[in-house]
Write a structure and sequence with these properties.
This is Cytochrome D ubiquinol oxidase subunit II. The protein is an all-alpha fold and about 325 residues long. The chain has helices spanning about 1-30, 40-50, 55-70, 70-80, 85-105, 110-140, 150-155, 160-185, 190-220, 225-230, 230-255, 260-280, 300-335, and strands spanning about 280-285, 290-295. Strands 1-2 form a two-stranded antiparallel ribbon. Helix 1 packs antiparallel against helix 2 and helix 5 packs antiparallel against helix 6 (about 110-140).
Length: about 325
Amino acid sequence: MLYVVMAYLWLSILLYVLMGGADFGAGILEFLSTQKSKDQTRKVMYRAIGPIWEANHMWLIIAIVILFVGFPVIYSTLSIYLHIPLVVMLLGIVARGTAFSFRNYDAVKDSMQVIYSKTFMYSSVITPLFLGIIAGSAVSGRINTGARHFPDAYIFTWLGFFPISVGIFTVIICGFLAAIFIIGETKTEKERQRFITKAKHMSLAAIGAAALVIIAASADNVPVAHWLFGNPVSLGCVVLAALSLAWMWVSLFRQSTKWLRITAGAQITLLLIAITYEHYPMLINLKNGQGLSLVLQHASDKTVEALAVALLLGSIFILPALFYLLYSFTRQEEI
């Protein structure tokens, strides 16, 4: 049952990166758009993310619940030593959702729309930035559980070259996913060409951000290169991701966009497998050279079994409801 829980944790993280990432990316693309094209970009993205934006954070909630119930030591370590970036990320989620609602559903369209739009765009950048910083901090060995001073315990655990580079990479990946996903939601050839161009730009930016992560990892002595190339599985995933990226570029130039969403999702999945395979079962690397393992630092067997059963039963109700949500919005657009 422990491995069932771990599988759900990994899948919830993956789905949050894919669906929530594309959601955040919509705001990132709006932020990066010129003032002239912001309105049109906003309309297309609203049509694209409207059906699922409320459901995206379900995956984050599932991951948090799994950590809280199934791996309390890991949960408490993250929530204590990384509480500053966690609070910033959660505030960004709240601010973004609030701004999105008021901007699109406010009965009175006045000057507050400017504030709503800026809040939506800025929080769309800040939230994935700090999500990446949290992930980079957890695996980079920066968390010092023996620290006696506030900066060492709560500031330098996340404020560093590598965590920030992972945060930047996360922001770019979200923008990349949004650009790819939204191509299929465009209604005119002009819109389609605009987002194909955005997808190309974000793809190049993602390659640059990935190089920045490798440089930062080398500077901070984080063995990212070993995680990616140190075993056949991770190396194979990296090679497949690179090949799929090349195929994606060919498809973009040929304007053959039918399989782009699946390809982009496969790329992120392969990269996550490549990173986590070598790193497994460690979820957190500590500064003292030790780590917190999913296999060793879990709750009691009965708690884990109950959690696994709850996840399996919950899937029976949650997944059909989610699919019906997407289907109903699709039908509404057709009508």
